[in-house]
Amino acid sequence: AEKISAILHFSNLGFSLFHQSFSSVSPMAAKKTIRNPELIRGVGKFSRSKMYHKKGLWAIKKKNGGKLPLHEKKPAAAVAAVKPPKFYPADDVKKPLVNKHKPKPTKLRASITPGTVLIILAGRFKGKRVVFLKQLTSGLLLVTGPFKLNGVPLRRVNQAYVIGTSTKVDVSGVNVEKIDDKYFAKQVEKKQKKGEGEFFEDKKEEKNVLPQEKKDEQKAVDAALLKTIEGIPELKAYLSARFSLKSGMKPHELVF
């Protein structure tokens, strides 16, 4: 008897779960009823006048003073000036961020002022003593040997690669207003495409010749500097000599 009651209990439980699962399913959507079914294609069962009464259009007219209400058409959307792309790329392309970086003027070292004699620490003219003329907009230092003394022309140097000395030269008579960063820009020449016949011909690369304007500018700066340098004893020899450390010299104890 206990087994039979247990079987009946589980059967009732299964039936209730089965009933709940079917009851949770949404009923099928009701079919739309057509007010004027077609007898044949294009011919309705009721006439226009009959449908006028069936739809209740007479009541709507009566309510609105004998006229059917007119619905204002929505204004057409403005045509976009820039249309979005029709196809979306398969791979997501990252949008470049807006660069809000503003160039800040490079702060000049306190020990470097116009006319200060500097010692170049690296590069082609390593160990040479030069005269500082001015700081350019790029933050680089405009220096010269002068060229007639130690072979250092008008040149741009980063202040990280120079040592400022206590020696100074008066540069008030030197005019360097025309010299800026564009003065040192290289002229890029367009390479001509070689034809089939010229492909195997070896052409010698012409050496870059310094323009005459730059030569004249260098001579003018050197002439103005040499006037003041010659007035100071031993300064000419000091600028001509190359700086170097000898045995026994301690760099951290030197006073420049």
TrEMBL record:
Source organism phylogeny: Eukaryota, Viridiplantae, Streptophyta, Embryophyta, Tracheophyta
Keyword terms: Ribonucleoprotein, Ribosomal protein
UniProt superkingdom: Eukaryota
Gene source species: Solanum stoloniferum
Pfam short name (any one): Ribosomal_L6e
A single cellular component GO annotation: ribosome
InterPro entries: 60S_ribosomal_eL6, Rib_uL2_dom2, Ribosomal_eL6_KOW, Ribosomal_uL6_N, Translation_prot_SH3-like_sf
Cross-referenced CDD domains: KOW_RPL6
Name of this chain's protein: Large ribosomal subunit protein uL6 N-terminal domain-containing protein
Family: Belongs to the eukaryotic ribosomal protein eL6 family.
Segments forming domain Large ribosomal subunit protein uL6 N-terminal: 31-84
